[in-house]
Amino acid sequence: ARLLRGESYISTAPLPEKVPNAPIPLCENCSSLRGKCRYFTQRRNAAGLKGFSAYQKISAAMRVIAYGV
C-alpha cells in the first residue's frame, strides 16, 4: 500500500482501554524444542561469545509466525 501525499503511517484508531496480559507458556516449549532441534540451543560463536538464548530464538520464531515478518 502506497501512501498518498499528506497521509502518515500513524493510525488514528483508538487503542483499547485495557489489554489482557496473558503469559505465554514458553518455558514448556523451550525444553522440548532444545532437545529436538539444534537451532534452538544456545551456542558459542567463533570468538567464544555466547549467542542468543533458546528463549530469545523461540520468541523470535513465534513473532515471525504471528506477524509474518
UniProtKB/TrEMBL annotation:
UniProt-recorded name of the protein: Uncharacterized protein
Taxon lineage: Eukaryota, Viridiplantae, Streptophyta, Embryophyta, Tracheophyta
